[in-house]
Amino acid sequence: MAQTLTTPYDVADHLRTREEMAAYLEACLEEAHGDAAFIAKALGDIARAKGMSQVARDAGLSRESLYKALSGERSPSFDTILKVMNALGLELRAQVASS
Predict the structure, then answer these.
(1) Chain centroid to CA 53
(2) Of the four, 3, 27, 76, 81, which is 20 to 30 A from 52 by CA?
(3) 98, part of any domain
(4) Taking the model in full, what pTM does it have?
């Protein structure tokens, strides 16, 4: 019987445009159900796709602290989220929640 070879899937390999990044983040926001660490991990995926070093520079953070903040193991401060969103060229918006 032939063996099936698998490779790890990394969503960051598939986020090439800002539109794809925004769509991915929007989908993660819908699925997060209030889990801030889940959103932080999604931002980490997007930051890796764009280049973590560049995002860290643009956000005014060290690369190491950015990795820690967006690891999904903790909930980063809202200030960090806003800096990262700005560095990624993404906007935070609000809309009325559906009932």
Answers:
(1) 14
(2) 27
(3) no
(4) 0.88
